[in-house]
Amino acid sequence: MPNENQSELRKIPSVEKVLSDPALAPAIERYSHPVVAATVRDVVDRIREHAAGGGKVPPFEAVVEMVSYHLAAEWPGLLEPVINATGIILHTNLGRAPLSPAAVEALSKLLGGYYALELDLATGERGVRAQSMEKLLEMATGAESALVVNNNAAAVLLVLSTLARGREVIVSRGELVQIGGGFRVPEVMAASGAILREVGTTNQTFIRDFEAAVSDQTAMLLAVHRSNFAIRGFSHDAALPELKDLARQFDLPLVYDLGSGAIADTAAFGMSHEPTVAEALAAGCDIVCVSGDKLLGGPQAGIILGKRAYIDRLRKNPLLRALRIDKYAAIALAATILQYLKGQAAELPVYRMMAETLESLARRGDDLVEKLAAVGFSAEVVDGESLAGGGSLPDETLPTRLVSVEVKGSIDDFCRRLRLGSPPVLGRVHEGRFVIDLRTVFPAQDEALAHAMGAAGKF
């Protein structure tokens, strides 16, 4: 046995031999030589350990395949677009809103060189970061002033830290929401140094509850839009106009965490109406905070809009330095807002997906069924529903047409192979079948989707 083991150990290829195999050249090009070399060493070490315990050394071709598999498992989707076949338009784990071609073009044009991010070209002196982008936001929403930070949680944190540190903020119990990633409004408030003053109950809060809580320790009234869940049945909320009147009575700012960030009317794209930034400002809110990568359809950003007197105070908070928007998001957001001002909101991917017709989806679905048949799958087009997702329009669905695919073998293994493929593919599983919603698949990806399905089905 010892001699046999020694014989097997001598069969183990060297790291250099494996690395020099032409089959790994594409992997080295994609991942880099150091990354592939580290994976080869790891695979060779595992084979050596296996052989030392009496196991057999796999053929050289199998060793190369093991390296490719481990690379895909360790670095899935590295710098590669994912095909989102889930039907969730604003998929939080896939980056929410896809950027529009106009925003991508602006990034491509400007990021290869220098950009006047914080320079006043008229005077040649240092200016306000991304000032033109903020001016565009003011024009698009009717706000007196705008300030943009890196996400909406940061926006709320900055507002609370500046205007309410050490003092009370009154908010309805029914609006103490938890947002993506486990962040909760009470925790953001605690981090800001503000003191939470809850009023009302989960389902019933009246303006009299806010009024009874006002004291000389009160710094602001806070309203939070329930953008990621809904309360139905026996419920009541204090309306924004009521809160505005109470805020004016006690000379307090009214801050609205609107979250989802709609500028356009979502009802025009087949969904129910979502409160817009302009409506919130018209209702009397002094500050409105929204996300850039939800219904606004732009990059991740926390957008603060409202009265100039308050936003000027936010600009002086040293915390802004840590929360400010980066140049990439500033460019993409400016390009996105320009599309609203040009009347091109319907060209944003979020709204194009919402507005795609059942006829178009059925036609694409029939074509995909044919492509899948050519690579060995049995599939059919069936009725289904798409979701807005991303903490927007809770309970809201859109009728859609799905491609339901019969999968041989383990559906979990098949989904894993799709996720680790090139490009990675995410879909849904329903009653043991793999389900594709083409609403969230770009038409240019249809061919790649069929190819990825075929590759995953070969195992």
Automatic annotation (TrEMBL):
<feature type="modified residue" description="N6-(pyridoxal phosphate)lysine">
    <location>
        <position position="294"/>
    </location>
</feature>
<feature type="domain" description="L-seryl-tRNA selenium transferase N-terminal">
    <location>
        <begin position="9"/>
        <end position="48"/>
    </location>
</feature>
<dbReference type="InterPro" id="IPR004534">
    <property type="entry name" value="SelA_trans"/>
</dbReference>
<comment type="pathway">
    <text>Aminoacyl-tRNA biosynthesis; selenocysteinyl-tRNA(Sec) biosynthesis; selenocysteinyl-tRNA(Sec) from L-seryl-tRNA(Sec) (bacterial route): step 1/1.</text>
</comment>
<keyword id="KW-0963">Cytoplasm</keyword>
<dbReference type="Pfam" id="PF03841">
    <property type="entry name" value="SelA"/>
</dbReference>
<keyword id="KW-0808">Transferase</keyword>
<dbReference type="GO" id="GO:0005737">
    <property type="term" value="C:cytoplasm"/>
</dbReference>
<protein>
    <recommendedName>
        <fullName>L-seryl-tRNA(Sec) selenium transferase</fullName>
        <ecNumber>2.9.1.1</ecNumber>
    </recommendedName>
</protein>
<dbReference type="InterPro" id="IPR015424">
    <property type="entry name" value="PyrdxlP-dep_Trfase"/>
</dbReference>
<dbReference type="InterPro" id="IPR018319">
    <property type="entry name" value="SelA-like"/>
</dbReference>
<dbReference type="GO" id="GO:0004125">
    <property type="term" value="F:L-seryl-tRNA(Sec) selenium transferase activity"/>
</dbReference>
<comment type="similarity">
    <text>Belongs to the SelA family.</text>
</comment>
<dbReference type="GO" id="GO:0001514">
    <property type="term" value="P:selenocysteine incorporation"/>
</dbReference>
<keyword id="KW-0663">Pyridoxal phosphate</keyword>
<keyword id="KW-0648">Protein biosynthesis</keyword>
<dbReference type="InterPro" id="IPR015421">
    <property type="entry name" value="PyrdxlP-dep_Trfase_major"/>
</dbReference>
<keyword id="KW-0711">Selenium</keyword>
<comment type="function">
    <text>Converts seryl-tRNA(Sec) to selenocysteinyl-tRNA(Sec) required for selenoprotein biosynthesis.</text>
</comment>
<dbReference type="Pfam" id="PF12390">
    <property type="entry name" value="Se-cys_synth_N"/>
</dbReference>
<dbReference type="GO" id="GO:0001717">
    <property type="term" value="P:conversion of seryl-tRNAsec to selenocys-tRNAsec"/>
</dbReference>
<dbReference type="InterPro" id="IPR025862">
    <property type="entry name" value="SelA_trans_N_dom"/>
</dbReference>
